[in-house]
Design a protein that fits this description.
Layout lengths: L3 E16 L10 E10 L6 E4 L9 E6 L8 E2 L10 H28 L1
Antiparallel strand pairs: 1-2, 1-4, 2-3, 4-5
């Protein structure tokens, strides 16, 4: 999640760019809308999305990472992805398998001795 949420005004015209793709199995072509922003605190200065987030003069709330490690997103899209449950379960499973494997190797070594 991005740590800062700021109010921004869309300034100027929204620039529209079309991005075709080629080849079988390629993703669908994209249309991107580049919004120039005037935000409290001066950041971010622009924002690209696959849809218009506001018309010129409109206000939008943008979630931003002040350190610049992640791209800004509209506030309503600022949520964590994934769950810690699956990685934790995989860690427990791999630990259990390691213990079982080491115990089996120890028993096999005892029988050889």
């Amino acid at each position: 999640m991005r740590g800062a949420v700021t109010d921004c005004v869309v300034v100027g015209e929204i620039r529209v760019t079309h991005h075709p793709t080629f080849g079988e199995g390629a993703p669908h072509p994209k249309t991107l809308y580049l919004h120039t922003l005037d935000c409290d605190g001066g950041r971010p200065r622009d924002f690209s999305a696959e849809e218009r987030i506001a018309e010129p003069g409109g206000t939008v709330r943008i979630a931003d990472d002040p350190a610049g490690r992640m791209d800004p997103v509209p506030e309503h899209q600022n949520r964590a992805h994934g769950s810690p449950v699956l990685p934790a379960a995989l860690l427990v499973l791999s630990t259990a398998l390691t213990v079982v494997t080491l115990a089996a190797e120890g028993r096999a070594e005892e029988r050889r001795s």
